[in-house]
Amino acid sequence: MLVLTSLCFIAMVLFCLAMTKHREQVIVHEVSILAVRFFRPLAWLLLSFTAYLSVELYGWSIGPALLFGALTIAILLLTLLLTYRAKIVPKLAIVMSLMASISIFIS
Amino acid sequence: MKDNFRQSMKWFHTWVGLIVGWILFFMFLTGTMGYFYQEITRWMEPERPFIEHNISNEQLLDTAQAYLNKHAQGIDGWDIYLPNVRDQNLRVGWRHPAEPGKKRGQYKIKVLDIATGDKVASRATDGGRLLYRMHYRLHYLSTDISYWIVGFCSMLMLLAVITGVVIHKKIFSDFFTFRAKKGLPGWLDIHNVLSVIALPFHFMITYSGLLFFLFTYMALSTNLQTNDDEYREMRKEIYPRIAHLEKANQPAEMLDVSVLYQQVKQVWPGHKLNYIEIFSANDINAQVLFVRHETDITYNPADEVMINAVTGEVIAQQAKEYTGAGMIHNGFFSLHEGQFAGPLARWIYFFTGLIGTAMIASGLILWTTKRKPQQMKKSNGPDFGYRLVEQLNIGTIVGLPIAIAMYFYANRLLPLDMVERAAWEAHVMFISWAILLIYPAFRPAAKAWPEQLTLAALVYLTLPLVNALTTDKHLANSLPQQDWNFAGFDLTFLVVGGCFAFAAYKVKVLQASKRSSKQSSKQRVQQNKPPVLAANESLLSLQQVNKEKC
What we know:
A: mainly alpha; 4 helices; 87% helix; 0% strand; B: seven-stranded antiparallel sheet; globular; disordered C terminus
């Protein structure tokens, strides 16, 4: 469940980095246009992987149900962070991706 | 009617939401509590023992079977519920024979003390089940009327969800947008964010809620299209039950359930046993059904193992073929109830439920916020309708949580030997809600909001204290015992109380800042502007509440 939530969070961060107005909130320095183009496809890819993982972990019927729950929590967290602590979003995303990959490898 | 499509949808969304908003708030909040109804019941029966760690299932099953043999002879069906995350006590249950004139007898669950093997005598209470049944049975009304009211409200909720998506112009570009602004834009953002982030949940919960009483709402259709046999057949298909043998009235020696359990362990290595049903106990046809925690939301037949209790043979079950419609129906049922959810997923259900509740609350507040400037301009004060909405908002959004706390207080404080004690717990809840609904009528809204919020904070923060004074199941005992059922409850009260306290504090701070800024601006532009927009101080600042609620 925590893995799902972290992965959802990272995917959502990528989506939000793909949008100019949010990118400016989160990152101070300029990002190359080329990199920005990759954010959205990458986000979709990660989201599909998370969906696959949810089915793999919890079965075809419970998995997607939990995926939507995880998405809700992830978006809520991200939205609140964007409003109040936008600067820590990238750091948190990195920490979460580390956590998620470690727990995938362990299990 | 408005000319363009989106405008008319907007009109529809506003008024549909307003008409049933308060009932929906009630349904959502009590339903959300319902996700923890077993936990609530355990907390409300503090006579029950603390969790016993490291007791084998075999030992538990022996204890339960010995009790049932002694106290439930002659009853056909026995159920044994093993301690689990949701309820850490061993429980047994059976249905009493029907009283004359009634279709079914009463189903009673008894909690067993593992140490003595005897039942625990606990206070009379309806526990969490009352709260959860309330969300579709509306307590005081008759079943039929409640089902229709609930159905009507859910139907409008479904429409509000759909029209809400239609009128949300920038659903994708504003996906993550939440501007913590004061006034209308702030509230609109809160409402949007709360709706969008849990949209799958909102849709699922409303739609599946309507499916629950399918045969009540669409009775005409089923009556016209099916005869009795077809109807029975249809119900059998969508409410699956494992077939078991009827009693043969030949007494026979039954094997110990704990012995039969050894075979189940081989079928499901490493899986947790959830509960056991025993059919035709101590009869030649005795059968035992072992059920593990759900692994599939459409009722996986492999989650159950049936064993002949006399010979010890595993009875092979025919894999049940579900039709597409049956599967969708069952899937929606279990999505709504979330029975499959483990502890973490259950908390997520609880949170998304709260998000839904907060969404409705923010929608209701949005209605008043939008009309406030205009209403304040009127020479003889705001309209009756506006004041009524404001009053109902305060009385419901803050009043109902307080009333629920009063239900818990009643559980701890009403005398144990009181007549109709369980019923009075609910009466206390509704009486306090009624008071809190009426109270804002006599107070200006700007005062009533912070007052009720402070009251809410107080009642929730003192609940653990009252618990400690009246029972021994308080934090000082439950934490060392690692009984997270009891401990989690008190801790949740503290968190909820803290949130309300923060909200009340925030309201006061914002009111004060508003007042000083208003005064200074008044001094600056003293000439022509009428004192309009005597803004919605308390309401505005309630944004903070909402942020917290989710």
